[in-house]
Input
Amino acid sequence: MTKPFPSRLCTLAALVSLTALPLASHADSDDAEMCAQKAYAMGLRYQQQSAEAAALQRQGFALATYRLEDQIEAHGGSDGLAIITDLDETVLDNSALLVRDMQACHDYTTWDTWKHWEREGEPRLMPGAKAFLDFADEQGVAIFTSLTVTRRTRQIPSPPWRR
Output
């Protein structure tokens, strides 16, 4: 006599789950050996490869452009208007540095690799950043960045975004 279908399905499911047990314990031991920085891998892949992240960044800069247009119109021109923006992870995509440090199991939160990357790295701009900053510049709006405010450029003879 053959077992009814639901009973055979339960038996099959139990056997499949038993075969997965050694894999699960092996995965746990791999996780223990993984460096802590590898925990950021998914977030860094999202930043570098996700169409959603790129679209959200473009959307943010498009909104900033609309708001700037409104301010220029409300003030009757751009005289006296300025924008202040951070550069790191706002205008500049520094995820390449974070990936490099993660791959070396180096804790990037100590920021000890940052100056070298600023001088010799090749950062990309965030999607939409150039169009927004170009628009502001074309309108005659003064642009201040975290670098101009903190004067970090004194430490960087040729910032990579000016190359």
Remarks:
- The longest strand covers residues 82-85.
